[in-house]
Prior knowledge:
Elements: H1 4-27, H2 38-55, H3 60-88, H4 95-106, H5 110-116, H6 136-154, H7 159-178, H8 182-187, H9 193-208, H10 216-231, H11 240-259, H12 269-276, H13 278-293, H14 300-328, H15 331-352, E1 389-390, E2 396-401, H16 403-418, E3 422-427, H17 439-445, H18 455-466, E4 471-475, H19 478-482, H20 497-510, E5 514-517, H21 528-533, E6 544-546, H22 547-553, H23 555-567, E7 571-573, H24 577-580, E8 585-587, E9 589-590, E10 593-594, H25 604-621
Parallel strand pairs: 2-3, 2-4, 4-5, 5-7
Antiparallel strand pairs: 1-3, 6-8, 9-10
Helix pairs in contact: 1-2, 1-12, 1-13, 2-6, 2-9, 2-11, 3-4, 3-13, 3-14, 3-15, 4-15, 5-6, 7-9, 9-11, 10-11, 13-14, 16-25
Amino acid sequence: MLTKNTYYSWLDTLRLISVLFVFVYHLDSNYLENGYLGVDIFFVISGYIITNILIKDLSIKEFFFRRFKRLLPTLFLLSIVILYFTLKLNQNISLEQIYKEALHSIFFISNYLFYSQSTDYFMQNDLNETAYLHTWSLSIEMQFYLIYPFILKKLINKKLILLYTLFFLAGLSLILSVYSNSYSSFYLFHNRAYEFLFGAITFLCMKEFKLKKIQYNTIIIIFIIFIGIFMSNINPLNNEIAKRLSISLAFCLLIYMCSNSKENFLNNKLTSYFGRASYSIYLIHYPMIIFVGNIIERNFTWYFIIIIFTILLSILSYEFVEKPFRKKIKYSVIYKIFYFLICILFFGLIASIDYKKNDKPIEKIHDNFLKNENDQFCFGVYDKEEFCSFGKSEKKIFIVGDSILESFSKVLVQKLNTRNYEAILMNSSYCYFAPFFDLMDGNKIRDIPNEPCDINYQKKRLDILKKNKGVVILGGQLDFYLSDENNIYFKGQNINFEEEYIKNVNNLIVNGYVILQLPPLPRYEGNLIEEYANLQNINDLEFKIKKNEYLKKIEESLKIFNQLTQKSNKYHFINLTDLFCDQNYCYFTNKNQLTYLDNNHLNTLGAELISNAIIQKIKNLM
Length: 622
């Protein structure tokens, strides 16, 4: 079995590597695009270590006590700190939601909360999102601790049956993960269990069954292959499961190699120390990124502050929270601390109900996104032959645009379906209807990750439209793409945007479509939600911009619309100033209520206003 020294010499270094992967990814995914898979590495290591610990005749009671001493104190402290800074910085989230996330985190069920809310892990990057998001992995880890020891202890004297059982469970978990939707596959324990079990199987094969040593050059070659799959966006299965599987197997091989080597490159006192502090590093780094990111702009100073303070605070946490609790705390003491902190959070939740008069739950943009029958968002769908459609009818409405259109599509689709229209969604982030441009190149330059808007996606839209007829609703931030500062979208593409856009819209008209064009929405220049949250009296609510400023910003867009209107009576656009503006101002409220959920996306109330106008226009046209 592993000795204590061997464990501290290299396994902690591996844990540090896994945490650093995640840290770098959260700092800037451009530096390590697949760095979030560091969590998968940690799951494998945990399965290996926990099996080693439990095999040593450690009682389940003692095991649970050690795990709680290891995990709870630092997590409690972090939860309180996040609550404080969230309130201090007026985070765009209701207090009820904050306490809900805190309670789910300390009870190790936050993964189910984020799954139920369809929280997109890959789009969380500012204070408007939760600082508890990274606790999803701790919840999965604790769920593994609560189940696995009973299986292991039950079959501890039947090693071969134990091994077969773990292989079966790992295979079942992997199959469930492959056939689950993206949110279930990412957040739920049963779809992640195979990674822990791979680590457990590695330990059993090596230490209990004395697996024959494999030549190190063979291991290195296989390891490099798996790492290549992990680092590349192109893999055999072309999905996240392939990445998780490859990195898990790669580190199983690395663990095998290191455990059979008396001397290896991972034996280092410094990396071993920070590996032991890796739990604190993981807990602290993500809230640090979110909070600092909303105080100063992203530059060298931003990186420096986050890295230095994460390291310093992690050392303090490890030395003065983790180590004392791990070595000195008895059963009764930790239970008292646990219940005391639960009471604090509970009464804080009760008190938050009356904290601010205007503290209402504020919609997130994903609340208004539609899902298909597989519980996947239709927004940005790219890997299917057909786009999401709702309702069956000869009267087809194609909704084509970026996230602006998607923010009100849910309300619009409901209204269309009740009027016997079929609605087909073709929306993706930063993806205006431009089949003549590869917008993905521009998105990469602008650090917009994981959103399909390459030339193939645009052509796919066009191919579907060529096979059908009906009404096409076009819209989004056209002024954004036309502005000089954003001309990087078209870098290296020697095409005149205005001419090509007019030509493609005319082609749709020739093919029998009626075009309904939505101009860019008025955009708020401040922080709409933060200013709303800071209102002392909700009756003071009034957010507006000058109408002439709005018209000036969309001037180039209006020129294109006017040219198209003059050329065809099948091209129409809705004048948004009739909906959102009076003679002098354009408003972001209606009857003292916000109509936006951020600076440029509509909430449900705004979606109602614009959807009613669209329905009326379609009714007049058809």
